[in-house]
Structure formats: structure tokens, C-alpha cells
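Sample entry (213 residues):
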Amino acid sequence: MSKSLEIKICGINDIESMNAALDNKANYVGLVFYKKSPRNISIELSKELLIRRNSYTKIVVLTVDPDDILISNIIFNIQPDFLQLHGQESPERCKAIKTKFNIPIIKGIGITSKEQLIYSTMKYGDVSDILLLDAPSSKLPGGNGAKFNWKVLKNYNYKKKWMLAGGLKFNNITEAIKITNAPAIDVSSGVEVHKGIKDSKLIKQLITKCKNI
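Predicted structure, serialized as C-alpha cells:
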């Protein structure tokens, strides 16, 4: 993997895709705990997928406006490296979760403009460990295959790590990195053959290409 580019494969929900992500050294793997998502996963299946868990690939659990009971259940059973908050969580809620559960936070934000980018960075920068900049959506929060105007991120200077998400795939990843200079990317629908169905070959192809960017 390129030293300057990290990759997260999100929405993993089968053994083959998990193995492809691990074998090709994805930096992060995302498991979705959101019932409305086609990528939703159970605690039981998560445990099966994590049998080959290693120290290189970080495990991220994505949730949407979770309550403390769900978070406790996830942390007890999965021990994720990061908790991704991809709903309408306020900065106060993010801070409360981070403090109570002592876990690093990735905050997903839908980007609409340069002004909104600056505002959201100021709003969530101090309470999150990684910002995930995604395409806004009125449907599912993330994983919709839609991209936003990447030029909004040109010269984006953020003191912490951030990830680019939203419609990223094999055919546009080079352009996306060239425009945004993102230090990390998050891919979900871009390695799927159908919504919610990952393809191990697409995962390998994408990660291999990212090694050479």
C-alpha cells in the first residue's frame, strides 16, 4: 500500500470479501450496523468474519445515531478499533460517546459546499479522530454510489486524518486523489456487483491500483 494513501473497504458482510480485504492489506474494514442498509450485519456474522482479524487492518463499525445499548453490545462483542458515526450525531453526542466508551471516532459528513466543509470541520474536528467526507444523501447515509464535487476539497488543510468517500471506484480513484490529495479513501458501492453484494475481485483490483497511486 502506498505510504500516503490508506484505504477502507466498508460494508463487508461475507467471508470472501473479508478475506479479499485482509489478504490485500486494506487499512480499514467497515462493518455496518444499520438495519435499513443492504449491508447491515449481525453480531454473530461479524464474529465469523473477524476470525482472521489481524493487527494490520483496523476494524471500523459504522452506526447511525446509535443508542448506548447498541454501542455497548458492539464494543463488548467486536472490540472495534473505530466507531463510525454516520447519522445526525451532534458534536456533543460524539464527544459523549468517545468519552464514555473510550473509543476513537470517525464522523461521517455529507459535503455540499466549501463553506459547509469549513463549518463542519470546525464543528466536528475536536470531537472526532477522523473525518469522513461523503456525498450528501436523502436516502441511505453512505454507500449510495454518489459522488460530490471533489474540487470543493482542493487545498483542504485539516490537521487530523480525513477520508474521502462517495462514489469512488476503480475508474475514478486516480482522478479523485489527484484533485483532493486525500490521505485516505472509503469505498463501498464501488466494489459491489449489486447493492450490498461485494466482489472479492473488485476489492483486489481497487486495492492493487491504490498501491500505485
